Amino acid sequence: MSYGMAAPLQAAIWQRLSGDAALAALVGGAIYDAAPQGAVPDLYVALGPEEARGRGDGTGAGAEHRVTVSVVSAAAGFLAAKRTAGAVSDALEGAALGLDRGRLVSLNFLRARARRSRDAQRRRIDLTFRARVDDDA
């Protein structure tokens, strides 16, 4: 296993989302590596938790990353969040991302979870993607 491709994978996902026109039409530049501090936009996307497992074999090191991308909305309903989550999914599903280290073998949607915050003031959709990477370092 190699965790050495985690940072390049995250950077490539952020770059893909930041450069996607459909997503930008919905959230502008409100795409973050972490939830914003202070004044929070009414609708934003944040890269979230990740889980990685070794998937190397006799030919080289590799890993499977389960990456979460969150859509957070202050709207009363889920519609804006679901439209944005759809744009995130469209941007990432099957994307051929270039990594600074290693290579992305596949990137696929795995699951999503939509819920209200405890105080019911925000809506949140967590999308989980499975990324399979091989390390050529």
Protein topology:
Layout: H1 6-18, H2 21-27, E1 31-32, E2 43-54, E3 62-73, H3 79-92, E4 103-116, E5 123-134
Parallel strand pairs: 1-2
Antiparallel strand pairs: 2-3, 3-5, 4-5
Helix pairs in contact: 2-3
Give a structural overview.
InterPro entries: Gp17-like (IPR021508), Viral_Tail_Comp_sf (IPR053745). Pfam families: Tail_completion_gp17 (PF11367). This is DUF3168 domain-containing protein. The protein has one domain: STM4215-like (2-Layer Sandwich), CATH 3.30.2000. The relative contact order is 0.24. The two termini are 12 Å apart. A five-stranded mixed β-sheet has the order 1-2-3-5-4. It has helices spanning 6-18, 21-27, 79-92, and strands spanning 31-32, 43-54, 62-73, 103-116, 123-134. A hairpin with a 6-residue loop joins strand 4 (103-116) and strand 5 (123-134). It is of the alpha+beta class. The chain has three helices and five strands; from the N terminus they run ααβββαββ. The chain is elongated. Helix 2 (21-27) runs antiparallel to helix 3.
